[in-house]
Amino acid sequence: MPTLHRSAGILLHPTSLPGDSCIGEIGKQAHRFLEEMAAAGQTLWQVLPLGPTGYGNSPYQSPSTFAGNPLLIGFDLLIEDGLLTQKDLKAIPWLDPERVDFGAATWYRPPILKKACRRFLNRIKADAQLRNAFENFCCDEASWLDNFALFTAIKESQELKPWHDWPTPLAQRDPGALSRATKKFSKGIAETKVLQFLFDQQWQALRTRATELGITIIGDIPIFVAHDSADVWAGRELFFLDAQGSPKAVAGVPPDYFSATGQLWGNPLYDWAYHKTTGYAWWIRRLRKILQWVDLVRIDHFRGFAAYWEVPAGEQTAMNGRWVDGPREDLFLALQEEFGHDLPIIAEDLGIITPDVEALRDHFGLPGMRVLQFAFGEDSLAEAYIPENYPINSVAYTGTHDNDTTMGLAENKAGEGSTRSSEQIAAELRTIKAYTGTDASELNWDYIAAISRSQAAYAIYPLQDVLGLGSDARMNIPGIAEGNWEWRFQWQDLSRQTMTRLLTLTQETDRVGGNRA
User: Fold this and answer.
1) Higher per-residue pLDDT: 193 or 21
2) Taking 70 as the threshold, does the pLDDT of residue 506 lie above it?
3) Domains of the chain, residue spans
4) What is the DSSP letter of 247?
5) Does the active-site annotation cover 146?
6) What's phi and psi for 297, nearest 5 deg?
7) Could you identify which of 22, 163, 290, 364 might form a hypothetical disulfide with 233, taking C-beta atoms 3.0 to 4.6 angstroms apart as the criterion?
8) Residue from 141, 191, 220, 402 carrying the catalytic annotation
9) What fold, for 1-6+16-216+487-517?
10) Active site residue 439
11) In sequence order, which ranges of 394-470 are alpha helices (DSSP H)?
């Protein structure tokens, strides 16, 4: 891992950015957010996965692990580029500006984006420089883009049914059927490729601006991929599937802090023996792709590389699973050969962490995560999450996208996204008040200050905690399929008082400008 310099930053997914549309965009609003961060001394921006969203609108269940989410493309920048007009946007209805409306986004935005695609394809007929840039992009990304574009076109023709419910020749990738589909859906395939090009162009401009402002972008990839994805459809040899392409077993985690019955994710599991025969080529491509967009990458569920929770297909919960060995050091040695000794990876090492997981993380010098919200419960590992115990080579958080907000935690009740009883909640709050020496009325700032003063090289706060918001602003409740990923902030939320307070604390804890830890 490259040396981490003492810094602070914000956890915010682009979908949560303000704007006039039904979802946050990576256009001018995102550039303004970077500038607001820099003015408050924040030099880290952590995002969630940037791919298209899948089941439950989760960025962790994407139809492609390589693609960008076209719903994030900034309409304002397309207007500047002459690919859209203000008249094109008149069909977008007024919506609640404080919530992402995924239904509206998937209904209203694609037809508008298709207009931009058609204009782009007409423009490159006369613009040789732009045509060369687009063709070079398609060539460089062909290993995944060709399959994803065809997958997307077929899926639209099949009324968005999962690929295993398509007609057998298409589901089983009969060469003749794929050839006919490629010709039949050539227009849709071209549009998908244009959207990926436009997303990449806008994101690269955003990353350039972040670099100019001294901001490091931290990306995120899930360890597993969705079954209904181009990755599985086109690369089923990479996974444990039966002859029809259905998972023989699926991923999840056993009962934990978030769920009494565990979390049944349902993702297919990797055939690690096959990956080894390829030198982990797919994983190398996957990491290379995300590093085109970000500076560091957090790998979700890092413990799955040491051992993962295998649940038989057909189970209704994750309780009846078993631990199975992962690739361990072998994968990371292959990654080091490709990317060098200092891997730009943050290990999400939360949950049931055994000595072998810690050994794997530490062997490659990867920073782990320390979440203050885990410090005061009855868990035997709680002491590790107390700020005084954070190692320098770690990333400290008040909470994550899976936690309640910090102020929501102070107001938490049994049964509301928690596995704890009323007595446990009350006892935890008493411990928190004793630790902070406060009445918890500004627990968000107590937590921000505590992790900022820790030794951890990076201190990162969900924007909801900076703003002191309650449970209504929570991003995700693990195990709950609906109502997640919808929170958005408004520019007026970033008051001068709040941002000045954040800057002052960042200065006092020597985290401005990436000072050395």
Assistant:
1) 193
2) yes
3) 1-6+16-216+487-517
4) B
5) no
6) -135, 130
7) 163
8) 402
9) TIM Barrel (3.20.20)
10) no
11) 406-410, 422-436, 443-452, 463-466
